Amino acid sequence: MNKTTIALLVIAITSSFSLYSREEFGADRYAMLSGIRESKDILKFGEKKFDSDVYIYGKAPTKFLSNSYLFIPSRSKILNVAMGEGRDAVFLARNGYRVVGIDANPSYVKKAKFLAREFGVRFESIATSTVESFAAESASFDAIICINYIDRNINNKLDRWLRPGGILIIESFTDNQRGRKEFHGYNESYLLKPGELLTMFPGYKVLKFEEPLHLNKFTSGVILKKPEVNTLKGKNL
């Protein structure tokens, strides 16, 4: 075997080892490249870039909702309060739910409509002057979701809009998020006290509660079921 042949053989063997020792394509890297994970360079609390074509929070649904939506019976009519750019509303519509999404920012509503068109689904999207000004009939929704939005002044409305036995899904940031560099400019009224979600709707049954402390974001999330009967009054709500 001459020197040229030996050199070529060494190169081939080295290339083969390189092929099988490539950097592992882990779940985190996949999530970033596929758009599932939110980029830290883009996602900053209080950023005012929503008029652009970029979906600041991505197009994938929030993790808490995507892990919890099966608590909602199929074909339910759902109100998505403060839907933002529509990622959760579109996700629910793709899973066969009848969705009404509301938001006070017309730019959000416009982008939500484009996102629905991109994924080939339809849902009713409504721009309101404020979420509090939205009007709906009593017991008109089978489920209501509020993600990254807390307005304690509308809790009574949420209760009234939700039918007896309906599902309420809420998630937002806790006080532990305060002081982190990503917190700058975020609306402090959205922050939750530890365990606060467990007390917001007395009489509701807790189906799921999470308040993780080991992640890079401090959130609190709950899934509640409205009672079928008002036990205090002994009649339907």
List the defining traits of the structure above.
single chain, 237 residues, alpha/beta, Rossmann fold, two-stranded antiparallel sheet, 9 strands, globular, disordered C terminus
Structural features, described:
The chain is of the alpha/beta class and 237 residues long. It has one domain (22-236): Rossmann fold (3-Layer(aba) Sandwich), CATH 3.40.50.150. It contains 6 helices and 9 strands, in the order H-H-H-E-H-E-H-E-E-H-E-E-E-E-E. Strand 6 and strand 7 form a beta hairpin. The radius of gyration is 23 Å and the shape is globular. The protein starts with a helix and ends with a strand. The model is unreliable at 7-50 and 231-237 (pLDDT under 50).
Judging from the principal axes of the Cα atoms, what is the shape?
globular
How large is the count of helical segments? 6
CATH architecture assignment name: 3-Layer(aba) Sandwich
Rg, alpha carbons: 23 Å
**Share of helix, binned:** 10-25%
Order of helices and strands: HHHEHEHEEHEEEEE
Instruction: Please indicate the count of domains.
Output: 1
Return the CATH class. Answer: Alpha Beta
How are the secondary structure elements laid out?
Layout lengths: L2 H18 L6 H8 L28 H4 L10 E5 L5 H8 L3 E6 L2 H13 L5 E4 L13 E7 L7 H7 E12 L31 E6 L8 E7 L3 E2 L4 E2 L1
Parallel strand pairs: 1-2, 1-4, 2-3, 4-5
Antiparallel strand pairs: 5-7, 6-7, 8-9
